[in-house]
Amino acid sequence: DADVTQTPRNRITKTGKRIMLECSQTKGHDRMYWYRQDPGLGLRLIYYSFDVKDINKGEISDGYSVSRQAQAKFSLSLESAIPNQTALYFCATSDGYGDIQYFGAGTRLSVL
Amino acid sequence: TQLLEQSPQFLSIQEGENLTVYCNSSSVFSSLQWYRQEPGEGPVLLVTVVTGGEVKKLKRLTFQFGDARKDSSLHITAAQPGDTGLYLCAGASTGTASKLTFGTGTRLQVTL
Question: Is B13 in the A-facing interface, judged by CB distances under 8 Å?
């Protein structure tokens, strides 16, 4: 089983719908991150959390919210999806050692 | 906002050729990482370089960190089809607590 699991792997939704992407990890890491990936732009940080009571905005947090339900679970919500949120979304974890991050396989989201 | 520009953006070569990918910034980083991402998967760490001027080798891959810790390069010798993928550099800055700035990515295709 994967150490960092994202669900769903693919999702198609309509403009205005609320969407939740989920991430769970078995690595025991405190730090978790949500990124979006767009062609030619690399990975951009949406939100990050260093423990259950710590939530921080990244560089592109507008239109997104997160919830850290437990050390192992970090979910990303799009309250009212819009087409320019169509992207590949990645969850990552870190134990803070050497700044290394471990990624899930991604969720491909299409907003029509 | 720190930016990491990678060049080239796309590279298509034949098996056996050599190539170099560049990662440049105007900012100083405490360390720099290189990840490789294959279709349908998340990025996976290849190497971390920490010291200015540092060179690390991973089989046919050679990574270098610039003396001023603002840039890095990845050189692949005798490329193979298995090297195909998206290569991402990512910089960590002192005081930003495990937050990485990712480069724009270089998509490499190696054909027979």
Answer: no
Q: Which residue of A has its CA nearest to B103?
A: A42
Number of H helices, E strands in chain A: 0, 11
What are the chain B neighbours of A96 within 8 Å (beta carbons)?
A: 97-98
Q: If you search the block for the tokens 């997104």, which residue do you land on?
A: A64
pLDDT of residue A6: 98
Task: Give the burial class of A108: count Cβ atoms within 10 A of its Cβ; 0-12 exposed, 13-18 middle, 19 or more buried.
Answer: middle
pLDDT at position B34: 97
Q: Which residues, in sequence order, are CB contacts of B105 under 8 Å at separation 6+?
A: A40, A41, A42, B6, B9, B86, B87, B88
Instruction: Over range A86-98, report the average pLDDT.
Output: 91
CA B64/CA B86 separation, integer angstroms: 18
Residue B100 β-bridge partners: B92
Residue A97 pLDDT greater than 80, yes or no: no
In this model, does residue A1 exceed pLDDT 70?
A: no
